[in-house]
Write a structure and sequence with these properties.
heterodimer; A: six-stranded antiparallel β-sheet; B: alpha/beta; seven-stranded mixed β-sheet; 9 helices; 14 strands
């Protein structure tokens, strides 16, 4: 699960990590007040207005703006809340923006990178830090791997004080700033574990460049959190942060039905039991010259209800020209699955209200009672005219690819 | 011989009174597994009825069932929130093979759980090590010779007393597996996989090509788990009854690449492999928590290249897993 930048700031702030003053607005009418609050006490006021969407590429799309007056703030807010944001990540249709973050501008002396994530190879959580913040860390890792500092968290004690201080000094901090940096790292690590994150990233963490005679300080300017879906059950406060308008509606619907579905850009819908077999099914479609429209794991049961719901979700994608059902019947018998697939296809209600399946449907069953299952499929020809039974995986892939052309 | 489990393994189920745990406990019993009891806190003293002929005792703790029955393997079906604790309870009670079937355990719970297991295992010799299989896996099966119908507990699929003797710990369909004595080629392969149904597919293909299976291990789809490919491949290489090794991996992590390096250096037996997810998009979690492409190294193509370089026969199509295994072993054509 992902959250918005303003929610990430709230999490940091609650954890005691310093962030610049900011507020969230939903109307241009609130922009001037928000500007005044963010820039209170500044000799030369500066604020930044940022569209709150999960998609990246905001800056290039013109949806991150520096503003110096309340009037500029209002104009920027009006632009972002009335136009759709189009970036490489949104697709050409763009994305409506509903919320804006208005935050104090900061004079930056230097930018750093801090993140905690889980390292699979060492089976530990790890702190990643770099002096080269503000840019994509993947780029830094590729071009200048020496600039990346890694420090593993103890599995039960977390990021200990000495470990955080070690990294702070490695980053070049001294004196009070070193203590402040170490404190931020420990707080971020604690937050990571407490909230079951899969990524907790501050980029950039900035060293401010204040007017003479005031000390520099560290501030988290932007943050990104991803959460472990398996941990969400114990975090109602995080579940409440989910923004359904940011998710693919078909994926949300599948999730509610206990199905695992991911929309892709091909035209062959897939309905498979098991995640590994579902991926392998996508692969074999590609090997036969087709392109999968989705990943869908219907789960161990593959009951009639689950198959019916899966058909609805797959066919809600207008690009789908054919469906491949690939089920290995283990605990669940093939005859039961075949009957379920036939019933679901037979009673399928199209968008125009008519009944019955229209797109080509190739069904490949293997496992317990497979002969009885295939018999049901072959006898269902009159009920579901588009149905073809396949004998094995290759046969199934070649039939469905042929059917969609 | 086989690896991890055999007909003499005494198995319990943690979470035996749950719907899923109960039905699969029955499935294992009917296969012929020596099931000695179950654990559900608060239900100690009750019986779990497999069918009209058989029942096994339920205990409150794993320690009690180990003391009473000498159990040495467990399958865990408890809900995700309590599963990591159940794994450590089994380890603490002296259980040696722990199959965690539960799906959806928080990654941070597994970070802690695995660290404790590693600490318990440090300094132990191979004979006394605790093996965690999973979580989020189908379990482990060592097939036995078919001797019965497998529909009732008084006529199990592979009966030890009648010269059968297999052991199934988990949710896989038992009958698709073939004991080496019933295989046309007289050869058995060891199968290790991160996926469930894809493993059944591989088992089915090898059985149809006249191969038996020594042991099949589903190591699970989570990023932090117990046994990895490399650990199981090492056991298969040492097992005299395993004549070939079939490894099924997927996108995400470096486990298959590590295994490839190990195979190149240490494995003399024929190896075949399949990696799922060549068409998976970057950055999307494909069902399994562990199946997500992060960098360039954990793509299917990188793993396939590493395995080919190590001398493994890699099936590019999932329809060819069995065929590649047979080819690697010089069987058929």
């Amino acid at each position: 699960m992902k959250i918005h930048e303003y929610q990430a700031r709230d999490l940091l702030s609650q954890a005691g990590i310093p962030v610049p003053p900011s507020s969230v607005i939903e109307s241009p009418l609130m922009a001037e007040d928000a500007f005044a609050r963010a820039t209170k006490g500044m000799s030369s006021p500066l604020a930044v207005i940022k569209a709150q969407v999960h998609a990246g590429g905001r800056g290039k799309a013109g949806f991150v703006k520096l503003v110096k007056t309340a009037a500029e703030a209002k104009a920027a807010a009006e632009f972002m809340l009335t136009n759709k944001m189009v970036s490489v990540q949104t697709g050409p249709e763009g994305l409506a923006v509903k919320k804006l973050l208005v935050a104090a501008g900061v004079d930056i002396a230097k930018e750093y990178y801090l993140a905690i994530t889980t390292d699979r190879a060492s089976r530990r959580n790890v702190l990643i830090a770099s002096k080269e913040g503000g840019v994509e860390i993947e780029k830094v890792a590729e071009e200048n791997p020496a600039a990346i500092i890694k420090e593993f968290l103890h599995p039960t004690l977390g990021l200990q004080g000495f470990a955080a201080r070690k990294v702070a000094y490695q980053l070049g901090f001294t004196g009070k700033l070193a203590s402040q940096a170490a404190d931020i790292m420990q707080k971020l690590a604690k937050l990571f574990v407490e909230k079951d994150c899969s990524l907790a990233e501050i980029n950039p963490l900035v060293l401010t460049s204040p007017p003479p005679s005031t000390p520099s300080a560290l501030l988290a300017i932007d943050a990104k959190f991803n959460f472990d879906d398996n941990g969400l059950f114990r975090h109602p406060e995080l579940q409440a942060m989910a923004d359904p308008t940011e998710e693919n509606p078909a994926e949300l619907r599948a999730h509610a039905a206990g199905l695992s579905y991911i929309a892709l850009d091909g035209n062959i819908g897939c309905l498979v039991n098991g995640a590994g077999l579902a991926m392998a099914t996508m692969d074999i479609i590609k090997l036969h010259g087709g392109t999968p429209a989705n990943f869908l794991d219907v789960g161990g049961g593959a009951t009639e209800e689950a198959v019916t719901e899966a058909f609805k979700i797959i066919l809600s994608d207008q690009a789908v020209k054919g469906i491949l059902v690939n089920i290995f019947g283990g605990i669940m018998r093939c005859d039961v699955i075949a009957q379920g697939v036939v019933n679901a296809a037979k009673t399928y209600k199209n968008a125009d209200g008519s009944m019955g399946f229209k797109v080509p449907l190739v069904v490949r069953l293997e496992g317990t009672n497979v002969e009885a299952g295939r018999k049901i499929l072959s006898e269902a020809k009159s009920l579901v005219p588009t149905l073809q039974a396949a004998t094995d995986l290759s046969d199934a892939a070649s039939k469905v690819c042929k059917a969609v052309g | 011989m086989a690896i991890l489990i055999d007909a003499s393994t005494k198995v319990i189920c943690q979470g035996i009174t749950g719907g899923f745990g109960g039905s699969h406990t029955k499935g294992c019993y009917l296969y012929g597994t020596q099931l000695v009891g179950g654990v559900t806190p608060g239900k100690g003293g009750q019986k779990f009825e497999v069918d009209a002929h058989s029942a096994v005792p339920i205990f409150d703790t794993v320690k009690q069932v180990v003391d009473a029955t000498g159990a040495n393997a467990t399958m865990i079906f408890v809900p995700p929130a309590f599963a990591a604790d159940a794994i450590l309870e089994a380890a603490d009670a002296g259980i040696r093979v722990i199959c965690a079937i539960t799906e959806g355990i928080p990654v941070n719970d597994m970070v802690k759980c695995r660290a404790v297991l590693d600490e318990m295992n440090s300094g132990r010799d191979a004979q006394r090590r605790i093996h965690l299989v999973g979580p989020n896996c189908p379990g482990v099966i060592t097939p036995g010779k078919k001797t019965g119908g497998g529909a009732a507990s008084n006529d199990p699929y592979t009966c030890k007393a009648k010269g059968g003797g297999g052991c199934k710990i988990g949710i896989m369909p038992g009958y698709i597996h073939t004991h080496v004595s019933e295989s046309k080629t007289g050869k058995a392969v060891g199968i290790v996989s991160r996926s469930g149904t894809l493993t059944y597919e591989a088992v089915w293909q090898t059985s149809r090509l006249g191969l038996g299976q020594s042991t099949c291990v589903g190591i699970g789809g989570d990023p932090i788990r117990g046994l990895n490919h490399i650990d199981v491949i090492e056991m298969f290489e040492r097992d005299p009854d395993t004549h070939g090794i079939l490894m099924i991996g997927e996108i995400g992590g470096s486990d298959e690449t590590d295994a490839a390096a190990y195979i190149k250096k240490h494995v003399k037996k024929p190896v075949a492999a399949f990696i799922a997810g060549r068409t998976a998009p970057k950055g999307k979690r494909m069902g399994h928590a562990g199946a997500i492409i992060g960098g360039a190294d954990d793509t299917a193509d990188a793993k396939i290249a590493a395995l080919q370089a190590a001398g493994a026969k890699v099936a590019l199509s999932p329809a060819d897993m069995g065929k590649m295994m047979a080819e690697a072993m010089g069987i058929g054509g």
